Amino acid sequence: MRDIIRLGLILLLITAVAAAVLAWTNDVTMEPIADQVLQANITARQSVLSDASEFEEMSTDTFAGYANVLEVYKGLKDGQVVGYTIKTNPSGYAGPIEVMIGISVDGVIQGVSVGNHSETPGLGAKASDDQFKNQYNDKKAEGQIDVIKAGTPKDNEIISISGATITSRAVTAGVNAAIQLYNEALK
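The chain above was modelled as a monomer; its predicted structure follows.
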């Protein structure tokens, strides 16, 4: 009995020290991680709306009620609005996919950036490749964009990633949510 209590106390001491070390590590790394996430978002905004020199966050009232929309920023250049960046998080094959979309004031998609995701390496992860995401560039932000598996895409279509149709449809759903928001609340 006495040995069991002694072993229990030793185990308690070891776990308490481990928990304290983990808490300290979390505390030390929290700010650098937040800074990296902030910088990644700034870089994504600049990549999808390169005409803008600064970005101004818009009120959450702007996109309240729009599914999967996380944030909206107004892109400015010399004090004039040049477009909007809209971050969405549609559900893909393995979980949410962070998609940043840039739409100019004249209603043209300027770029799409795929951020954090858990998609399958070699398949769904190809959504981050330029070959896939550049298909959205210069498409009109009117109506829905559709995903096709093969052939020559029309103005409102993109070709899916081979073997990753679910991911392709998820990214497109994020883009379509941004188009809807743009047409209904930002135009």
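The chain has one domain: 46-186.
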